[in-house]
Amino acid sequence: MSPPGGSWLVLGKYLLFQLPSWAVVGALAWGARGWLGLPDWAAVGLLGALMVKDAVLFPFVRHAYAVEMRDAAAHLVGARGRVERSDARETWVRVGPELWRARPVGGGGALAPGTRVEVVSLEGFTLRVRPESGERAET
């Protein structure tokens, strides 16, 4: 059975992030028993209240612990862009707000500025692109 609205992995990640605060509060509560004469029930209650607070907050923050990292290639492959600058040596393509160095797939001619392209792959920091259907490379 999984926790409501989340997976065991997300719950485990959340609990691992809470452990240090529980350890610190537990140590302080234990020390307060001797130094301040805090009753045992109050020390245990303090730690219990912290744990209850974390349990109540979990449904509100679980989405932050469920984030999956994707690599840049997964984000860029299939994206559409427009050629900004192009000459015999290099081509620069704008994909969203970012400007990337690019090379046409298949070694065709240079791509004219303004040509709409689709990202086929990523090689290091260089995009491999092809003109969208209906667009043509210069020869």
In short:
It contains 3 helices and 5 strands; from the N terminus they run H-H-H-E-E-E-E-E. The chain is of the alpha+beta class and 139 residues long.
Plain-language structure description:
The protein is an alpha+beta fold. 42% of the residues lie in helices and 24% in strands. The protein has three helices and five strands, in the order H-H-H-E-E-E-E-E. It has a five-stranded mixed beta barrel. Strand 2 (91-95) and strand 3 form a beta hairpin. The longest helix is centred in the N-terminal third of the chain and has 28 residues, at 8-35.
Q: Descriptors for this entry?
A:
single chain, 139 residues, OB fold (Dihydrolipoamide Acetyltransferase, E2P), 2 domains, 5-stranded mixed barrel
**What are the secondary-structure elements, in order, as H or E?**
HHHEEEEE
Largest sheet: 5 strands, mixed, barrel
As a whole number of angstroms, the C-alpha radius of gyration is 28 Å
How many distinct folded domains? 2
How many helices does DSSP assign? Answer: 3
- Alpha-beta content class: alpha+beta
Helix content bin: 40-55%
Question: N-to-C terminal Cα separation, in Å?
Answer: 62 Å
Strand order of the largest sheet: 1-2-3-5-4
CATH class of the largest domain: Mainly Beta
CATH homology superfamily name of the largest domain: Nucleic acid-binding proteins
**Would you count the extended β strands for me?**
5
**What is the CATH third-level topology name of the largest domain?**
OB fold (Dihydrolipoamide Acetyltransferase, E2P)
Low-confidence stretches: none
Mean pLDDT: 85
CATH architecture of the largest domain: Beta Barrel
Strand content: 15-25%
